[in-house]
Amino acid sequence: MKKALKITGKVLLWILGIIVGLVIISAVTHNILKPIEKNKYEIGQTINIEGQDMQAYVTGSGEKTIVLLSGLGTASPITDFMPLAERLSEDYKVVILEYFGYGFSDTTKKERSNENIVNEIREALKELEISGPYILMPHSISGVYSLYYAINYPNEVEAIIGIDESRPNQTKTNKYENMSPSLALLNTLGIIRDITFLLPNVDDGMNENNFYSAEQVKFKKIATAWNSVNTSVINEMNMVNTNTKELYDMKYPNDLPVLSFLAKDTVDTDNEWLSLHEEVISNSTIQKIETLRGGHYLHWTNADKIAEITKEFISTRLK
Among 19, 15, 42, 73, which Cα is nearest to 189's? Predict the structure, then answer.
């Protein structure tokens, strides 16, 4: 009996040692590959915001400027928005900003409050020497930041064109669950990279309409290994309830043109989604909702339609 227990103990120690060894190899490999990949795949330009690097991409040269702002946890906003940005750049200057913790930008421990994120957007545009007013084009959670921006700096926001954007009152009934900061270890130890390597054929529908090149799809998976559940993204997730509560029952400024593209899939699965967007409208003459067939990442499958309707909206609603 004692001999059997001794053998079992040794086997368990061996198994534990193998697991620890694999985790160490994973972490070392991940942290060696990450800077090499970032250097190889770098897109856009790096600007300095309060001593940290933030990545931006600027294209087009129109008189009006559209600023594309990503959803929570989007691994590579520049790649994510590229097909839409290409179409919009035919008529406008288009800027894609990667928040801290996203794409090629640094992570930060600074609180992910509405105020801090909006000030970082403003500082980034200033560093890029692009003057406003701007047309903000937020996806998902950036709808909250854009509303905060428009309310607090109305002279800098010419219009908001949302892509299935979040609304503050949605957390009145559906609170976000806090994520443990320890989950960042999955990123640090390269576990996310391991998962994406082991599941190479998982299709999230990004390239359903062939808007993205094979290289862009590949890079999105690589960026997922860099940025999923990093410190900045976890902190931002844990601030959602606070950030939305700060704007409960707020409406758009009465003189602000607004166009919200809602995903039919979201409207069909969330009974409150349409009403949440209707209740922030203060002037139905210039604030509209357009529902398009597709999922939450509406720009993945509807880049052509979004660009077409956006151009019509800007030409008829903005001077």
Answer: 19
